[in-house]
Amino acid sequence: MSTNPILAISGLTVRFGGLTAVDDLSFQVQPGQIHALIGPNGAGKSTTFNCVSRYYDPSEGSITLAGADITQRNAAEMARLGVARTFQNLELFSELTVEENALLGTYSRGARRLGQLLRRPDAENRDYAHHLLERVGLIDFLDHKANSLDFGRQKMLELARALAIRPKLLLLDEPAAGLRNREIDKLDRILTELASKEGMTVLLVEHVMQLVMSISHRITVMSFGHKIAEGTPAEIRADERVIEAYLGKGTENE
C-alpha cells in the first residue's frame, strides 16, 4: 500500500471569535483505510470535518487531498475532487424517490442537467445507482419517497447517494447515530467491504464505539480541540489519556 496519505491535515486551527474550536491539529489518513475521529462532545470533531469538506475555513494550517492543497477550495468543488460526505442530520431530498436520491449522487460525475439526470438517466448511472441501493438493502424501495422510509433506511439511502459519487475519500458524520444494533452490524459489513475489497478510504466521526473499534484501522482522539492520542483500536483502548477523557471504564462491553 502506498505510504502517501490521501488526506493530510497539518497544524489545523479554527477560531470562532475568542473560542478556539480546533488547536494545532495534525493527522494523516492512508488510502484504503478506515480512520475514525472520536472524542467527547465539543472536542472539535465536527469542526474538523467541516474544514475537510470545505464548509468552514481554517484560521491556520493546511489540508491536502492526494498531495494537493484544498484549503482554498469551496464545498461545491469537493465532489468533483472525489470527496463525498454524509451529515449528522439527514440531508435527503424527502419528496424525491429512493432511486432519484441515489441518482443525484451521480450528478457530479458529468450529467449536463440535473432535470435530465432524473427524467432520463443514462444506463450507466441508473445501473450503478441500483447496484448501490441493492448493496444497502433498498432495491425494493426504488419508487418510495425518501420521507416514507424509517430512520435506519434513510441513513442507508444517504450512504448510497454519497457512494454514487464514486469517491476516493468518503466522509461519514456519525453514520451509526440512532441506528439499532442489527443496522449497526449491517453498516459494519458495508464499510468493511468498501475498504477491504474496493480500497475505499473512509474518515468517520462516530460515538458508537462498537462500530469504531470493529472497523477502524486507525483512530485519532480529540479533546477540547487538541489531539490527545492516535493509534490502532487496541492502542486507543489501552491509552490512559483516552480512558480518562472519553472512553471510561467498561468500553470493552459497549
Question: How would you characterize this protein structure?
Answer:
- The structure is a single chain.
- With 254 residues, the protein is an alpha/beta fold.
- It has two domains: 1-81 and 168-254, P-loop containing nucleotide triphosphate hydrolases (Rossmann fold, 3-Layer(aba) Sandwich), CATH 3.40.50; 83-166, 3-Layer(aba) Sandwich (Rossmann fold).
- It contains ten helices and ten strands.
- A six-stranded mixed sheet has the order 6-7-8-3-9-10, with helices on both faces. The protein has a four-stranded antiparallel sheet with strand order 2-1-4-5, with helices on one face.
- α5 (123-135) crosses α6 (151-163).
- The protein starts with 6 loop residues before the first strand and ends in a 7-residue tail after the last helix.
- Residues 250-254 have low confidence and may be disordered.
Topology of helices and strands:
Blueprint: E1 7-16, E2 19-29, E3 34-38, H1 45-52, E4 60-65, E5 68-69, H2 75-78, E6 83-85, H3 98-104, H4 114-119, H5 123-135, H6 151-163, E7 169-173, H7 181-198, E8 201-205, H8 209-215, E9 218-223, E10 226-231, H9 233-238, H10 240-247
Parallel strand pairs: 3-8, 3-9, 6-7, 7-8
Antiparallel strand pairs: 1-2, 1-4, 4-5, 9-10
